[in-house]
Design goal:
Blueprint (H helix, E strand, L loop, with lengths): L1 H9 L2 H38 L7 H5 L8 E4 L2 E14 L2 E12 L2 E11 L19 E6 L21 E3 L4 H8 L3 E8 L18 H31 L1
Parallel strand pairs: 2-6, 4-7
Antiparallel strand pairs: 1-5, 2-3, 3-4, 5-7
Helix pairs in contact: 2-5
Pfam families: SURF1
Organism: Fluctibacter halophilus
Subcellular location: Cell membrane; Membrane
């Protein structure tokens, strides 16, 4: 007991506090990365399962416990509102996601038609295809995730000029612009031949293996930090 107390007293308080704090933070980040890897593995397994199913209506998809990535089929009439979702890259080239509203018998649905390149001049909007996408349209159900770092600042106009440029897909903001309530999902349109839009959706951008690699790095850094601290304390005590 006395030996333990003497060892504790010999530890430099500030260096000990900083080291323990750093180790706890790095260990926590490692555990978080492992949890993210498990979530990605479950998501990929879910995608593999639902991709084999036939397309269902958006209402049927929303009735499922986990409706993300469910194949859906939508029909109805295209509405006037167009939205350009800014700052979307495709193979390093800047562009927009083009989102249009569809009036179906189940409600108004936001459909992401895909990516289109942006003009070189920032104040010039891209020329959108005149022909409406053919209906019925197939795709997958996508759940909107809010980016807390983005806050829309555009003032909603009673008579907007379409298309409206937004920083992210926000169904509440888009509903205000259109003056319509929107269903709580977005349909990612399937790829079609001769389409002017690029549709290469990536539901899982970072694979589970990369999260595991990051976790190993954090655990390794935590261990290295402890080893360096112990070695430094022993050398100090010897001196």
């Amino acid at each position: 007991m006395k030996d333990s107390l003497s060892v504790l007293k010999s530890l430099p308080p500030i260096a000990t506090l900083v080291t323990l704090t750093a180790v706890v933070i790095m260990f926590t980040l490692g555990v978080w990365q492992l949890n993210r890897a498990e979530q990605k593995q479950q998501r990929l397994a879910h995608i593999a399962t639902v991709s084999q199913q036939q397309g269902i209506s958006p209402t049927q998809a929303l009735s499922q416990p986990d409706w993300r990535d469910m194949p859906v089929i939508v029909d109805g009439q295209w509405l006037d509102p167009w939205f350009l979702i800014d700052n979307k890259l495709h193979r390093g080239q800047p562009g927009y996601y083009v989102v249009r509203l569809l009036d179906s018998t189940e409600g108004v649905i936001a459909v992401n038609l895909g990516w289109i390149a942006a003009p070189r001049q920032r104040d010039v909007l891209p020329t959108l295809p005149q022909a409406d996408p053919l209906l019925p349209l197939t795709g997958v159900a996508w759940q909107v995730t809010d980016n807390p770092m983005i806050r829309e600042t555009a003032t909603v106009s009673a008579e907007p000029e379409w298309p409206v440029r937004l920083q992210q897909i926000d169904l509440a903001v888009m509903g205000k612009w259109a003056g319509l309530p929107l269903m709580p999902l977005v349909v990612l349109s399937d790829a079609r031949d001769n389409s002017p839009y690029v549709r290469e959706w990536q539901p899982v951008v970072m694979p589970p293996e990369k999260h595991i690699a990051y976790a190993i790095q954090w655990f390794g850094m935590a261990l290295a930090c402890m080893v360096v601290f112990v070695v430094a304390v022993r050398r100090k005590n010897r001196q």
